Known about the structure:
Layout: E1 6-11, H1 23-34, E2 38-43, H2 44-47, H3 51-60, E3 65-69, H4 75-89, E4 94-98, H5 106-113, E5 117-119, H6 124-135, E6 146-150, E7 153-156, H7 179-182, E8 197-200, E9 203-205, E10 220-222, H8 225-239, E11 243-246, H9 255-267, E12 273-278, H10 285-294, E13 296-304, H11 308-313, H12 320-332, E14 336-343, H13 350-363, E15 373-374, H14 382-389, H15 396-402, H16 418-439, H17 444-458
Parallel strand pairs: 1-2, 1-3, 3-4, 4-5, 8-11, 11-12, 12-13, 13-14, 14-15
Antiparallel strand pairs: 5-6, 6-7, 9-10
Helix pairs in contact: 3-4, 9-10, 13-16, 16-17
The protein binds iron/sulfur cluster.
Amino acid sequence: MAKRPRVLFIIHDLYQEDNHFPLGPAYLAAIMRRNGVDVEIYCQDVFHYSSDELARYLDRNEFDVIGVGFLAARFAETIDPLCKVINHHKKGAWLVLGGPGPSPIPDYMLKTTGADIVVMGEAEDTMMELISGKIANAGLSGIKGIAYMDGVEARINERRNPVKDLDLIPFPEWSLFPMEKYIRCLKPFRANEKDVVFGMVTSRGCVNRCNFCYRMEDGIRTRSVKNVVEEIEYLYKTYAVNYFVMYDELFVFSKKRIRDFKNALTERGLKIKFSCNARVDLFDEELAGLLKDCGCQFLNLGMESSDQTVLDAMKKRTTVEQNIKAAEITKKAEIGLGLNFIWGNIGDTEESLKNNVMLIKKYNTYDQLRTIRPVTPYPGCDLYYEAIKRNKLKDAEDFFRKFSNSDLLTVNFTDIPDDIYCSALFEANKYLITDHYENTTGDMAAASKMIKDFQDLYLGKNIKFRGARHYIK
Ligand code: SF4
């Protein structure tokens, strides 16, 4: 009998308790299992297994492929050391990296980590072809969507088109994961003790291309509303999930889709709560009402800036007026508001930072502690290439040398000197933290502690601080 391929996904530790369910590996696992592959999952994120424990686990087992997916932000701290352990203990397995972290800079990632392969872009079809190639001892040159080392050279193959019809992809393989852990990880706005909270995606991609945002694939693809609601019903019946965190980059991009979603929930008698991301340009009272009827508790609005020049420079394709209208309508509808601003993009000034703070203050629903982060030119986004063009970055290696924490300045795109840039940001966040505690618990000792955490971060005393909204063990 032919040997069944054996694949391991390692979900790396982020050293925090608010872990999001790893949907990428869960989708891949679903496809692999349907195609006769044995899949195992090693969740360092929720169990915080040490490197030694992982090494012993790898020593006891044999795999054909070991997969690790990640974002760029925590690469140096988490992925680089993890790859060293895997490389020492993987025996004959291929170490395959994927996700938004390695996809735009596969050659750097291959050379830095010693991984065998990087999958660029969405991996459903690519991973199946890779596994077949490994079992058949075939070469890698014909597999679309991968990069690999050929001697000392990185070979980057042609990209692969992503799956067009998302309904063809099976539901994530939840049964392989410690669901009892994941359904207890998140505590979103207006979730009470009884709510069971879990994440899902109803679409992939975005209609836009903001200069600070890297998208693995162009455009947006959606699952049918029927397919989405079937998943909601399954999660509700199987794991009692009633509060859904919609991870879609852009959940609200069509009023018709939200109307269809509402009708589909009503037809099945599903009463849910959810949070999601939205662009501001669609907003009117009708949309807010539909969202509320569907159970929307919290809306992340990508407002980004109070300054039209900056919005235009970042290619947000929205206006300050649309930002304000969306915030007013959402607040009036009593939906929680995530007012997302970043600062330090091309055209930003000390004045625009102050105006960002004032907009947050004006429309804050105080559901979350809001602070402002400096814009970071993560590899792959337009701003990364702009930084290279302006001689502010050399390459990916230079990025990871300069980047240490997403609350810290990596590249200054403004005309403001670095020291003034950093002190202005600290003062802005100090104000927002104080304002938050004054308008919520009144616990000013907690406010002082948070301000001290930010100060220690900015002064380089504790770069492991992960910002205002993470909970750490
Ligand atoms: S920031 Fe939001 S709107 Fe802009 S490209 Fe990224 S996901 Fe789309």
